[in-house]
Prior knowledge:
By secondary structure, the chain is of the alpha+beta class. It has 4 helices and 5 strands. Strands 3-5-4 form a 3-stranded antiparallel beta sheet. The protein has a two-stranded antiparallel sheet with strand order 1-2. It is globular. The chain starts with 11 loop residues before the first strand and ends with a helix.
Amino acid sequence: MGGFSGLNFDREKKGRKYRYSLEIARDMLLIASVKVRKTRMMYQANLSYQQSEKYLNSLLENGLMECYDDSCYLITKRGNDFL
């Protein structure tokens, strides 16, 4: 998957079950298939504020998601390719 090596996600523990970082990134990208605000994405992905900030920053830095007017987020073509 050339070009995505900069993604640096750790495993996040959810109760007794682990949800791997790529699953969280996938969830956030799927949620952002329509313009969505940060809070809505956080709730739909079932993340804490700190977790959502960490993943959102990484997705933005890697060009998988873009921020539009008034802090709405949307998946990019590169994000679709990643999925």
